């Protein structure tokens, strides 16, 4: 058996970390910044973090942006969907870009390409321009793909799950950190002397600059693989140079399903809600996601390539539709903290992907087929908590609305205290309460609304 090449092998390049025969690190030292392994780790999560900050920089400042641009609740909702949709389309191509050009160049290029959208957020002057900058900024979240690719290129099977998990998790923290960063930056700029409608615009230069610097850091300080960059290794013949037409069309078909299945899930959610209200949305999400788990189990059990492709496509349809159905419910959880809820939901999906990789596809504990089967079982199990989702004004999967007569106004006004209500901060939530009465559906009983249009509250 060939002896693994480590840092102690005199006839091979010396590395700060012990490595295997592919020169992938066999240890994960989070406090180290040694090149190339740990440097790649820190560059990947920091750049991914910066993209999260940019993408979710708007929600914390929405009250000011809304007033400045005269945005409606629909405008804000559409912009939020646009930010998520941008990442969907970009991720389709990101894996292929990593295969062709390497994670370093692919990541740095995407970050730089999307940076102008972040800068342009400062000059948005209408609902359309606001939606567009959020849409194109969202493309940057596809760096999740390059982050995972990069870690898999740098770390051996023994620790790749840890490297992927930590890099993805720390990057996702940007979605929460921006909830603190942007209000603080806005306050500082306003205190310096800028009026608030100018302060929020200037504030966007901070995440834009952060994203720009992270892109240059990845490009100039990073390295694709332990032994060098893709271009160098391809020239020397140490790495095969793929062609675009051979970059994984079958695998890409899973992502391409996003083009219609994810929007389709959102459309189905709205259609079902017209008749069955919120309870219909929840039931549909549970059904679709459970079926996705069933087809995932089948995918791990079939032995034919042609059948596998068919099952994969069907599985992808249900999975992506479930994503759209999920965001058909998210806007109703909270109006005051809609940005936080949306960010946590979107980020949680990425965390789930990382955990799945660590649990089922790390090392040789399970075969790929067994891992896929177990993943399907996990999908079904993770869908079960939906049985506990309950809105007092509308009900849940098995229960109707609260017997106390809780109304939409009661639910959304509970997020505001009396002082905030006196200042009128609750007005947008009050309007949303009225508009959300449609979630009662035509077939579902809910809190009554009197003839004057104001919901009654019963003791």
Automatic annotation (TrEMBL):
Biased composition regions of type Polar residues, renumbered to the chain: 448-459
GO cellular component: endomembrane system; membrane
Family: Belongs to the major facilitator superfamily. Nitrate/nitrite porter (TC 2.A.1.8) family. Belongs to the major facilitator superfamily. Phosphate:H(+) symporter (TC 2.A.1.9) family.
One record GO biological process: nitrate assimilation
Full protein name: Major facilitator superfamily (MFS) profile domain-containing protein
Highest rank taxon of the organism: Eukaryota
Main location: membrane
Residue ranges of the region described as Disordered: 421-459
Keywords in alphabetical order: Membrane, Nitrate assimilation, Transmembrane, Transmembrane helix
């Amino acid at each position: 058996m060939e002896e693994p090449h480590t840092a102690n092998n005199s006839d091979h390049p010396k590395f700060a970390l012990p490595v295997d025969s592919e020169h992938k690190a066999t240890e994960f030292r989070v406090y180290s910044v040694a090149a190339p392994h740990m440097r790649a780790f820190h560059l990947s999560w920091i750049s991914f973090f910066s993209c999260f900050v940019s993408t979710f920089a708007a929600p914390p400042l929405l009250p000011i942006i809304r007033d400045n641009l005269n945005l409606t609740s629909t405008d804000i909702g559409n912009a939020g969907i646009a930010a998520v949709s941008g990442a969907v389309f970009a991720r389709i191509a990101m894996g292929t870009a990593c295969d062709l050009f390497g994670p370093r160049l692919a990541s740095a290029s995407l970050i730089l390409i999307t940076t102008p959208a972040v800068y342009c957020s400062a000059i948005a002057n209408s609902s359309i321009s606001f939606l567009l900058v959020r849409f194109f900024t969202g493309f940057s979240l596809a760096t999740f793909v390059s982050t995972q690719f990069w870690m898999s290129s740098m770390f051996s099977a023994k620790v790749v799950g840890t490297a992927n998990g930590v890099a993805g998790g720390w990057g996702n923290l940007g979605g929460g950190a921006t909830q603190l960063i942007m209000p603080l930056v806005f306050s500082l700029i306003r205190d310096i002397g800028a009026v608030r409608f100018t302060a929020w615009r200037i504030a966007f230069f901070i995440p834009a600059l952060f994203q720009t610097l992270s892109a240059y850091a990845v490009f100039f300080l990073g390295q694709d693989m332990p032994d060098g960059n893709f271009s160098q290794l391809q020239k020397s013949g140490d790495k095969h140079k793929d062609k675009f037409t051979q970059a994984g069309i079958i695998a890409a078909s899973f992502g391409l399903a996003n083009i219609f299945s994810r929007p389709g899930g959102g459309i189905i959610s709205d259609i079902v809600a017209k008749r069955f209200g919120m309870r219909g949305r929840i039931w549909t999400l549970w059904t679709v996601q459970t079926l996705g788990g069933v087809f995932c189990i089948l995918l791990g059990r079939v032995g034919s390539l042609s059948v596998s492709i068919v099952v994969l496509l069907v599985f992808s349809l249900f999975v992506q539709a479930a994503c759209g159905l999920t965001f058909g419910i998210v806007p109703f959880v909270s109006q005051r903290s809609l940005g936080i809820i949306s960010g946590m939901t979107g980020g949680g999906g990425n965390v789930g992907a990382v955990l799945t990789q660590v649990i089922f596809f790390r090392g040789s504990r399970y075969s790929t087929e067994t891992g896929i089967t177990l993943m399907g079982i996990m999908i079904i199990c993770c869908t079960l908590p939906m049985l506990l989702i309950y809105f007092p004004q509308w009900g849940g999967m098995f229960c109707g609305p609260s017997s106390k007569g809780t109304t939409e106004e009661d639910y959304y006004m509970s997020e505001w205290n009396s002082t905030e209500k006196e200042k009128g901060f609750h007005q947008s939530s009050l309007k949303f309460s009225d508009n959300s009465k449609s979630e009662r559906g035509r077939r579902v009983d809910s809190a009554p609304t009197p003839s004057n249009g104001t919901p009654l509250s019963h003791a």
